[in-house]
Amino acid sequence: MKDKRFTLRQLNIMVREAIETELPDEYWVEAELSECRENGGHCYMELIEKDERSNIPVARASAKCWRQTWQMVKPYFERTTGQPLHAGIKVLLKVYAQFHEAYGFSWIVSDIDPTYTLGDMARKRQEIIQKLKAEGVFDLQKELQLPMFCQHIAVISSQTAAGYGDFCNQLADNPYGFQFVTQLFPAIMQGEGVEQSIINALERIYDEQFDCVVIIRGGGATSDMSGFDTLALAENVANFPIPIITGIGHDRDESILDMVSHTRVKTPTAAAAFLISHLKEVLDVIDSSQELITRFLSLVKTRQESKLDLFEQRMRTSIDRRFTSESHRIELISEKLKALDPTLLLARGYSITTYNGRAVKDASALPPGTEIETRLARGTIHSITK
Prior knowledge:
Layout (H helix, E strand, L loop, with lengths): L7 H15 L4 E13 L2 E9 L6 E9 L1 H15 L8 E11 L3 E9 L1 H22 L16 E6 L4 H11 L8 E6 L7 H13 L5 E5 L14 H8 L5 E4 L8 H5 L2 E2 L3 H72 L2 H6 L4 E4 L2 E2 L11 E5 L4 E5 L2
Parallel strand pairs: 3-5, 6-7, 6-8, 8-9, 9-10
Antiparallel strand pairs: 1-2, 1-4, 2-3, 4-5, 11-12, 11-13, 13-14
Helix pairs in contact: 2-3, 4-8, 5-6
């Protein structure tokens, strides 16, 4: 007797009935998403399991989450984990088996446990943090000094993001009239392209002259933050030679990008406020220093004037003393000169004999026939020597 023949549909119906009989329950399954896409309100997933040592796939399966279920589990998962379902993350799905004679086998997702994904995310984050610390780069940005006059700013953001416009407007309208110069380096700020897009922007900034880099994000989905928690991006930011300020607009725990940056603020406007405040602090220091210098110069001037007054007083006293002393000395000399005045000698009966205007002290020094002159108290006598 020949074997009984079946049509493909008949055979598939048998498979469906066997699966429905042997696998009637729902099961929680751990898996990694290798693909995740939405279409028509439904979510289509490709599940994968890898060998822990070799990382080679050892199991694959397709899974579907129908619209009615997906509309409930999606927002809950994103609110809890802070990110959407995407390729590369691990999930814990509640599934049941379904085989359709026309479309084949698939696991149908009836629930997703976000706490499992949170645990895996936390583990990966911790592994990245530990690796950065082991490399000695985790705190490198914190060691950089923000320039005093931090006014030339490189901005990494989406050009169309509302947050970028808010950031620029806040800088321009600051109440102190500070002047800032910003240059935008456009980047993808949500989705799977975040990591490489920001790294590329940093590479373009590297050869330029900026005081700091501001990475801001505004207007995007707060649930799509996974791109800021990658090792490659963290390493690039940590090793960057100028300070990086992050304002990527989320309220959950810090991303790894926030952790390794120089300064983390919540929003783009907060980043602008930080830069304005920094410059205001510098201005306050300058004003305070100027006031201190003015006070010091005033004090020095007062001290100098006091010293000059004291010096002048001492000089006057010294000059007066010197003048009195010299006056007394001149009086003594004058008295001495008066005592030596020849006219006084003549008045007392003495005479002075001169030859050619010089007093004669020795008569033998005069040759005979020399005309000499003798001055008396009254009159002069002219004589000739023999």
